[in-house]
C-alpha cells in the first residue's frame, strides 16, 4: 500500500508520512510542495528532511500541471541518491525526459508515469509503471495492458489501447476523483459523491464516460467484465441491460453547479 502525502510544508509532510507508516503503509507518494513555489534547492531540502526523518520508503510525485513547480531532471537525479527515496512519479510525458532520467539515476530507482494516457508508452520505453485512474474501474484490463507493456508486445498493447483510450480521455475531462467515481457509479450501486471544492461530473462528461465503458460491458477484449462486478451489477448485465443502464445512469445523473460549462472541462 502506497499512501499519498499531499502537503506544502515539510513539517506537515513528515507528520503525514509518520501517520502513514503507523497505519501500515509500505511507502509514501510525496508530492513536490505546491503553491509556495519552492526553488530547486528548496525541493531538494524538503525531500532531504523527509528522507532523514523517516525510514518509510518514499516516491517523489512531480506533477507541475497541478503543483505549479516542476522538479528538474537534475533535481530528481540528486533525489535518487538520497537514502529512502526509491522513485519518482513524473507527469511530464516527454520521451526525451524519460531518456534523460534513465541516464541520470541508478537502475534500481523507479520511474513512474503520472497518468493513463502517457503511461503505456512510458512503460514500453523502459519506465516502471504509471499511476492509473482507470485501474480503479477496470483492474483486470489494466493488468492485461501492463503485462503487454512489460513483455514488449506492442501488438497487444495497441489492441488494449484501442478500447481503453476513450476511457482514459473521458476520465481526464474533469478532475479526479470525480470522473472515476462517476465511472464506478455507472455500473455499481454506489459512488459519485465528492467533497468540495470538487463537484460531481457534468452530464456531458457522464455520458462520455458511459459510452467509453460500453465496450467492456460487451467484453470487447474477450474477457468477462461481470466477474469484477457485485451481485446487483452482474444481474443487470445478465439481463442484457448493461449498456442501456449505463446511459440511463448518465441521463438521470443529478448535475451540481459546475466550475466551467459542460464540454469545456479538459
Residue ranges: pLDDT <50 for 5 or more in a row? 220-266
Largest sheet: 6 strands, parallel
Silhouette = globular
Strand content: 5-15%
What structural category do the secondary elements indicate? alpha/beta
Quickly count the helices.
12
SSE order, as H and E? Answer: EHEHEHHEHEHEHHHHHH
**How many structural units, i.e. domains?**
2
Please report the total strand number as a whole number: 6
Q: Averaging pLDDT over every residue, what do you get?
A: 82
Write the topology of this structure:
Elements lengths: L1 E4 L4 H13 L4 E5 L8 H14 L4 E5 L1 H4 L5 H7 L5 E6 L4 H10 L5 E4 L5 H6 L4 E2 L8 H12 L3 H18 L6 H10 L15 H15 L13 H8 L3 H11 L14
Parallel strand pairs: 1-2, 2-3, 3-4, 4-5, 5-6
Helix pairs in contact: 1-2, 2-4, 4-5, 7-8, 8-10, 9-10, 10-12
What features would you describe in this structure?
The protein is of the alpha/beta class and about 270 residues long. The chain has two domains: about 1-130, Aldolase class I (TIM Barrel, Alpha-Beta Barrel); about 135-265, no CATH class. The chain contains twelve helices and six strands. Strands 1-2-3-4-5-6 form a six-stranded parallel β-sheet. α7 packs across α8 (about 155-170) and α8 packs antiparallel against α10. Mean pLDDT is about 80; it is low at about 220-265.
Question: Can you describe this structure in just a few lines?
Answer:
This protein is an alpha/beta fold and 266 residues long.
Keywords:
266 residues; TIM Barrel; 6 strands; 10% strand; disordered C terminus
Amino acid at each position: 500500500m502506497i499512501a499519498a502525502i499531499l502537503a506544502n510544508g515539510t513539517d506537515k509532510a513528515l507528520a503525514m508520512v509518520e501517520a502513514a507508516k503507523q497505519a501500515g503503509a509500505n511507502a509514501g507518494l510525496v508530492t513536490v510542495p505546491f503553491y509556495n513555489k519552492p526553488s530547486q534547492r528548496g525541493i531538494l531540502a524538503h525531500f532531504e528532511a523527509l528522507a532523514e526523518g523517516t525510514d518509510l520508503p518514499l516516491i517523489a510525485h512531480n506533477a507541475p500541471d497541478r503543483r505549479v513547480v516542476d522538479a528538474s531532471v537534475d533535481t530528481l537525479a540528486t533525489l535518487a541518491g538520497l537514502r529512502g527515496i526509491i522513485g519518482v512519479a513524473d507527469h511530464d510525458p516527454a520521451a526525451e525526459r524519460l531518456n534523460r532520467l534513465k541516464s541520470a539515476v541508478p537502475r534500481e530507482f523507479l520511474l513512474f508515469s503520472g497518468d493513463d494516457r502517457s503511461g503505456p508508452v512510458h512503460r514500453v520505453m523502459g519506465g516502471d509503471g504509471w499511476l492509473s485512474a482507470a485501474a480503479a474501474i477496470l483492474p483486470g484490463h489494466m493488468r492485461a495492458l501492463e503485462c503487454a507493456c512489460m513483455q514488449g508486445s506492442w501488438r497487444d498493447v495497441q489492441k488494449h489501447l484501442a478500447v481503453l483510450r476513450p476511457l482514459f480521455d473521458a476520465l481526464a475531462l474533469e478532475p479526479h476523483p470525480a470522473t472515476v467515481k462517476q465511472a464506478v457509479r455507472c455500473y455499481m450501486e454506489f459512488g459519485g459523491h465528492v467533497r468540495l471544492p470538487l463537484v460531481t461530473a457534468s452530464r456531458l462528461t457522464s455520458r462520455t464516460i458511459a459510452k467509453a465503458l460500453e465496450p467492456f460491458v460487451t467484453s470487447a477484449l474477450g474477457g468477462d467484465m461481470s466477474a469484477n462486478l457485485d451481485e446487483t451489477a452482474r444481474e443487470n448485465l445478465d439481463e442484457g441491460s448493461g449498456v442501456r443502464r449505463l446511459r440511463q445512469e448518465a441521463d438521470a445523473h443529478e448535475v451540481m453547479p459546475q466550475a466551467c460549462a459542460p464540454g469545456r472541462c479538459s
